[in-house]
Write the structure tokens for this entry.
Amino acid sequence: MRQRMPTIHDVAREAGVAASTVSRAFSNPRRVNVHTRQHIVAVAERLGYRPNPLARALPSGRTTTIGLLLPDVTNPFFFGIIRGAERQANAAGYTLILMDTEESPEVETHNVERLGRAVDGFVLASSRQSEADIRAAAGRNAVVLINKQVAGVPSVVIDNTEGTRQVVEHLASLGHRSLTYLSGPPASWSNANRWAALRESAGRLGMRVTRIGPFSPTVSGGAAAADAAIGRGATAVVAFNDMLAIGTLRRFAERGWRVPSDISVVGYDDIFGADFCSPPLTTLASPREDCGRTAIDLLLRGGRGEVVLPSHLVVRGSTGFVTG
Amino acid sequence: MRQRMPTIHDVAREAGVAASTVSRAFSNPRRVNVHTRQHIVAVAERLGYRPNPLARALPSGRTTTIGLLLPDVTNPFFFGIIRGAERQANAAGYTLILMDTEESPEVETHNVERLGRAVDGFVLASSRQSEADIRAAAGRNAVVLINKQVAGVPSVVIDNTEGTRQVVEHLASLGHRSLTYLSGPPASWSNANRWAALRESAGRLGMRVTRIGPFSPTVSGGAAAADAAIGRGATAVVAFNDMLAIGTLRRFAERGWRVPSDISVVGYDDIFGADFCSPPLTTLASPREDCGRTAIDLLLRGGRGEVVLPSHLVVRGSTGFVTG
DNA sequence: TTGAAAGCGCTAACAG
DNA sequence: CTGTTAGCGCTTTCAA
């Protein structure tokens, strides 16, 4: 029942001009006489003409579309990134295609290959692909990485080094002498990065650090992590991210451990929920909307650098003085 | 520096066949001799050929792409819907374009018009458009609505009527005789629907109901709602959604009101966080992943009905007996 | 400033 | 089963 959509040719005929002129009137208005243009626009409006984005992209090669790939759309961590990217893309007249790779490197690689010609570029957030695959993708398309660095590929990451130092000093100032890191996905660049930063900062302050895991970076993963942490003797745990940290909070409560009097808990990211869980979570907050915005910006400007965005510690109720 | 991508013509020449045969080998493999096909595929592989989705869509009119529009990507309510839609779309070989309309009817209408030819159909979740605009969109594209009903347009909604009855009966069984509804966005179909269901159920049980608001359906909106609710005399509040409910929880605590002994709080949706806020929230849980899945399914099958998905009450710590 | 014409990469009849 | 031939709707030289 759907009627055929009018094309530039319909508009051209009706307006008494050539199709190419109609084309110009929309894609390059300044190369058309003001009056002709107004006339064309009026006719187009009357006919209900809408440019076909696909037909427009085919000869020009410009799709005005950007692909944003991430490992898990339901992870609150990515909300800010999505929103920042969305806003920046829209502001520049681009459409954002969002794709959930469900933590699978294969799915990610496959989609990057499949969509390569359908987008002007990709933003890969927390990419699970190998460096080789990322380089290959960057050879075919414009690519910007978020929270991962690969030599030669532009990226924007959230600072872990300095932020983690703040975390460790905060714990030290509360009297903690040892801490346990609850690690996240092995393929995660942030996970490796945070652990390295933790070792270094703790080492410098003479604190003992151990690592357990990996755990699924989810609330339910936190239960396993808490169980594993109990009996490790540490007075503080630093979780790979807030999801994991919130999960440990619940499990500690279930098992009768008091946070922070029995054990302190720190997370990363300051996601939705970190401020209203019980107790509210001490965490390293990251400027995620900025992150998404900057990535799109870099992509559209053809930037080449490695941007590092600062994070900052938010102290809430889950950390406290060592007692006993 | 980016090299020209090989096309079917390159593959055809290299394989010694016609371009149309290469085309068939990929889009309609069974209409090509097995050996020719294998040969073509091998050559294509060697050349690194990838079909161009745009070029493919132009003559056929099929884009294998679906647009999912929603008012706020950062609202946890939509996570499940996104994931369900994503999965179902991918399973059917479709790409999902996700678009955040930021609560603006204009942005929504504009994007529907702009992307009309670039997708095979739209899923409009919690659409903020007028019925007229939705009908217009449905005249041009395949459209499925989520959480909104418009005569003649297929939709999938989450049941409020029966679910709300459960909420009211739960409160009644705890001794509550009056409740206050904290309303959400005026343009929201669910908001109207929930309020209507609440009045009816409460009326039947002889409970007093009042409505205040509208409030922004966010955690910060909950603070305003809590302040407004205090002094209303109701022993229970039912919030438009969990975000709002969680916000009231915090505000009540700040003002020294105990939940549930001073006041009971109920939300809608059972979003991420509803189980670990303090106290954990009693809420009407909705099958959101199902919802997203069903909507895509309906769209792809060209279904015409109005699907209603059941919700169910989850009782947690935020509701209790009336005291005093 | 405008028109004519040649594609963009692919699909889809229509022959053979 | 395969090749030939038209386009899909638009952009983009190249002339006029």
Remarks:
- Residues 160-287 of chain A form a domain with the Rossmann fold fold (CATH 3.40.50.2300).
- Chain A is about 45% helix and 20% strand.
- Residues 7-9, 19-20, 22-24, 26-28, 51-52, 54-60 of chain A lie near DNA strand D (CB under 10 Å from a C1').
- Chain A has a mean pLDDT of 95.
